[in-house]
Amino acid sequence: MKIMIVDDEAPIREALGKRLKREGFEVILCADGTEALRRFHAERPEMVVLDIVMPNNLDGLTVCRRIREVSDAPIIMLSAQAVSEDDVVAGLMAGADDYLEKPIGLNEFAARVHALRRRSILSTAESEQQYDDGYLNVDLHRRTVHVQSIRVHLTPTEFKLLAVLMENAGRVVSQRDLLEQVWGREYIDDIYYPRVYISQLRRKIERDAANPVYILTEHRIGYRFEKQISSNLT
User: Fold this and answer.
1) Is 151 exposed, middle or buried (0-12, 13-18, 19+ CB in 10 A)?
2) Share of the chain above pLDDT 90, in %
3) Residues 6+ away with beta carbon under 8 Å from 108
4) Residue 229: is its pLDDT beyond 80?
5) Which of 1-10, 110-119, 184-193 bottoms out in mean pLDDT, i.e. has the lowest?
6) pLDDT greater than 60 at residue 96
7) Residues contacting residue 234 through CB under 8 Å, at least 6 positions apart
8) Residues forming CATH 1.10.10.10 domain(s) in the chain
C-alpha cells in the first residue's frame, strides 16, 4: 500500500514515514499542500496522512477537499492544536476518515493506519446487498450511494458505518459495537466518534439531518437503520 504523508515539519514527516516503511508500506513525503496535490494526481497513493496547518495558503482542509473531488482514498488528518469535537466535525466535513492530535506516539500512529486500512478493505468486500426506497439507493457490493438519483460520495469510514447499520436494519447497534466493528478495538475509548460520524452521514443521506428517518438514535444505547416504505433490502 502506498501512503502519502504531508507535513511541513521535516522531522515529523520523516519520523512518520520511517515508521510506516518499517510496517511494510511504500511512502511518499510532501512538505506542503501544492506538492501534495501534484504528487497525489501523479502517483495515486492509496492513503493520505495530512497535516492541517501548512504554508502557502493551502491548508490541510483545502487539500482534503480537493482530494475528495477525485478520490475515496482514506485520509487521516493531523493537528498540532488541541482537538475539539468542532475540529473533528470540520475535518469530517472536508472528507477525512480519522483525526489525530500531535504529538502522537509512533505505535499509536501505526495502529491507526492499520485500522483504517482494514476498514477500507472491508468496505470494498461487503456482501451483495442493495437498498432502494426511491429516495435513497445503496449498493453495498459496488460501494455506491445515491440520493434522489444523485451520487453521494462517502468516505471509507462513513460507508463502513452505513453498511454495519444496514446489515442490522431494525436492530439497535450499541456505540461500543459500532466502535469495534467500524473503527476497531484501537478506538474503543473514542466514545464521541460514532456521534460525530453519524451526524456527518445524516447530512449526506437524510432529507432533513435534524429530523432523520433512516439513522435513528436510541438514547444512551446506540443507533439503528430504519427501512422506509417501498424499500428493498436483499
Assistant:
1) exposed
2) 51
3) 186
4) no
5) 184-193
6) yes
7) 129, 130
8) 130-225
Q: Going by CATH, does the domain composed of 2-123 fall within 3.40.50.2300?
A: yes
189 versus 77: the higher-pLDDT residue is 77
Q: Which 3-state string (H, E, C) describes the chain?
A: CEEEEECCCHHHHHHHHHHHHHCCCEEEEECCHHHHHHHHHHHCCCEEEEECCCCCCCCHHHHHHHHHCCCCCCEEEEECCCCCHHHHHHHHHHCCCEEEECCCCHHHHHHHHHHHHHHHHHHCCCCCCEEECCCEEEECCCCEEEECCEECCCCHHHHHHHHHHHHCCCCCEEHHHHHHHHHCHHHCCCCCHHHHHHHHHHHHHCCCCCCCCCEEEECCCEEEECCCCCCCEC
Which grid cell is 162? Answer: 452505513
Residue holding cell 436510541? 218
What are the residue ranges of CATH 3.40.50.2300 in the chain?
2-123
- Residue 115 pLDDT class (50, 70, 90 cuts): confident
Of the pLDDT bands very low, low, confident and very high (cuts 50, 70, 90), residue 211 is: very high
Question: Does domain 130-225 fall into CATH 1.10.10.10?
Answer: yes
Cell of 23: 510496517
